[in-house]
Amino acid sequence: MRRFSGVSRFPIGFWNYMTMKEWDERALADWEACAFSTIQSPAYSLDEEDRNKLAVLLAWCEKQNVKVILRDPRVSIYRIRDLPRDEKGDRSLPHDYERGVAEAVAEFAHHPQVAGFFIIDEPERDLHEAVVQAVGIVKTHAAHLLPFVNFFPAIPQTEALLGYRDYGRYLEDYVQRTGAKLVSYDYYGQMTEREYENPLYYTNLSHYRNLALRGIDFWNTILSTPHFRYRKPSYDDVRWQVNTSLAYGAKGIFYFTFYTPDNTFNSETNYRQGPIDWWGERTDTFFHMRDVNRELHQRWGNLFMDLQLLRVGHYPEAPADGGQLLDFGGAIKEIAVEAGHDPHLIVSEFRHRISGQPYAFIVNANPRDSVNVQVYMQDVRQLQRFNAYGEAYVVNNQVKFVDEFSSLLWLAPGQGELMALERVE
Question: What's the pLDDT at 199?
Fold first, then answer.
């Protein structure tokens, strides 16, 4: 048994709806304990009190090697929803927007822990042009910083909001017009009460997988706070959400949310038992998140940042309307299920962007039951896996052939196993 050694470069954070007036530095202990590596700052004003608090926050980020996305009032365009539409039905950026961005960039762009600026969450059709313009302005003034935009998911209810029936075309339009190298979205239907593996979860992951295959990174926002018809996630649920996201090529995880909303919204009245409850205490969900976050950081964090997705598929069946059946077109040639009720695996193959080394990742996508599988690989000479502390160890081949490798795996619900492969030349 060892102590957790600290966060990796892999972005793990949460949606932060605090204002800086509400925030105090006691929150930092919870953020550190939960192993967050990329945070959203509270929304701040430019007065002295908020600036002083922001300085404390930035100093903590530097000490802990945590990145921050700033919710700066000069860069966020959240409030343009309150402005009137133009003759085309669109909402426009304020006339002094670029000046404000330039000021914010001059103030913060050179801070080593500032990763980017928050632009907007879930922009509707009438904000599309403004979002494209805002992203372009931020990139013009600070090309190295992320202009953070989070998208609606691909579900029937959002078609009218987005003005696109084809969600893939919507993403493609945004990427082409902004040159975005990273995109983000949220979807929570996988945590619906009494339901498991909602196919729309994989429909959404498939849209973002298509970008990942082209080298465009994505972050997935997953559920941590029960509300509406979404259940309270268990440890296995959290692990399942994280590892299925990794299997599809995710390069960052955000949680919705960390602090339990107090149900003061008009119709949002059943939020409860988020990671931090209404009294500022840690719930069991906090510890589920903490353990999954630590596992990701400790075992593979930096490694996953450098893995380029090559293929991903489901076995033995693909979910209806989402995901593709495993085609066995890579190193993995056969899978035999030795034990387990209702087996469902996700199998991915990656290539390291620098070394070129191949990797395989296998996830038990059954959120309820463990599974025992035998994996057969062709033209693999050696296989390494990673223990709980991120140390690689060589796995013994269970067949006696030079050009074939077999490995037996037990996978708990939601568990993923990353394997480094040495191919036969």
Answer: 83
Where along the chain do its domains lie? 12-307, 309-423
Q: CA quadruple 326, 332, 334, 338: dihedral positive or negative?
A: negative
Its sign, for the CA torsion 260, 264, 266, 269, is: positive
Render 259-321 in DSSP notation, one character per residue.
BPP-S-SSS-------SB-TTS-B-HHHHHHHHHHHHHHHHTHHHHHTEEEEEEEEES-PPTT
Amino acid at 41: S
- Measured between alpha carbons, how far is 186 from 121 in angstroms, rounded to an integer? 10
Q: What average pLDDT does range 319-328 have in this prediction? A: 88
Say how far apart CA 421 and CA 397 lie, in whole Å. Answer: 12
For the stretch 225-251, pLDDT in tens is 999 999 999 999 999 999 999 999 999
State the pTM of this model: 0.97
Residue 264 pLDDT level (bands cut at 50, 70, 90)? confident
Architecture category of domain 12-307 in CATH? Alpha-Beta Barrel (3.20)
d(CA 39, CA 113): 10
Helix (H), strand (E), coil (C) string for 78-97: HHHHHCCCCCCCCCCCCCCH
C-alpha radius of gyration, the chain, whole number: 22
- What dotted CATH number matches 309-423? 2.60.40
- The conformation of residue 156, written as its DSSP 8-state character, comes to G
Q: Over 70: is that where the pLDDT of 148 sits?
A: yes
Distance of alpha carbon 391 from alpha carbon 420, whole angstroms: 12
Contact 83, 54 (CB under 8 A): no
DSSP state of 234: -
Q: What pLDDT, on the 0 to 100 scale, is given for residue 177?
A: 98
Which phi and psi (to 5°) does residue 9 adopt? -80, -15
